[in-house]
What we know:
Layout: E1 9-13, H1 18-29, E2 33-38, H2 42-52, E3 58-63, H3 69-83, E4 88-91, H4 106-127, E5 136-140, H5 144-147, H6 153-173, E6 179-185, H7 196-205, H8 214-225, E7 236-239
Parallel strand pairs: 1-2, 1-4, 2-3, 4-5, 5-6, 6-7
Helix pairs in contact: 1-8, 3-4, 4-6
The structure holds NADPH dihydro-nicotinamide-adenine-dinucleotide phosphate.
NADPH dihydro-nicotinamide-adenine-dinucleotide phosphate (NDP) binds at residues 13-14, 16-20, 37-40, 65-67, 92-96, 115, 140, 142, 185, 187-188, 190, 192.
Protein name: SDR family NAD(P)-dependent oxidoreductase
Domain Ketoreductase: 8-186
Keywords: Oxidoreductase
Amino acid sequence: MHISLSGKRVLVTGGTRGIGAAITRAFAQAGASVLTCSRTGGEAADALARELKATPGDHHFVTADVSRTEDVQRLVDACQERLGGLDVVVNNAGRITHVPIEDLGMDGWREILDTNLTAAYDIVHRAVALLGPGASVINVGSGSALAGIHHRAHYTAAKAGLIGLTRSLAKELGPRGVRVNVLSPGVIQTEAELSEEVRTRYQKMTALGRLGTPEELAHVVLFLASDLASYMTGATVSVDGGI
Ligand code: NDP
């Protein structure tokens, strides 16, 4: 099945590798104009830009750290200048660390909260004036938000916060015709290495007996961004192979 998003102007944060790269690629293949960012850019951003030249959509890259509010303003300004506005925001950029609670200091806590939760608030806060009827915000949460995982209190708290943020913004922005949803992914196989033992354990947790691919998550993002999902807002959408 092919979804056309031709003419849609899309911001995907953290789009140079992993899930964000797959989402960026999927929007460009669907004919959208996509602007993406990451902190470092580099070869990953250059390679994606080269690849996306062959797609019907167009692609822009800005170096920006979404946990820095001045970078977020620059990112939103770039959407206005280069895309001429915004129809879709995908808050995908995220970071994770594994730290026992007794070692988790304020700096470590804030770093993860700022990237995974506060950035999503800040982007919508600054971009909301650009979002008109039919626009859509998609936050990339995590299945671990509700399950909890040891040594990831900061990460799961941030991702659980995204659910509350999503539901409140859905109520606040619904009357303006703007939809807001959050994805709850299970384990998605990206470039990150997993040991055989960990991979097998995660696979056994799923009903489908395998990990997800970034493309399988990107397809759900395209659906949520499209008019096919026009009556979906405030939803937490599991994409986890049936964990
Ligand atoms: P990756 O680490 O593979 O990629 C993260 C991307 O975000 C990179 O492009 C990275 O680039 C960018 N990024 C990280 N921090 C920032 C920042 N502060 N500002 C701007 N860009 C940033 O992650 P995944 O693809 O695995 O994960 C993507 C999202 O999906 C995250 O929100 C994650 O929490 C969520 N998720 C992932 C799961 C999985 O199994 N992979 C499961 C559940 C949820 P750079 O380092 O150059 O900044």
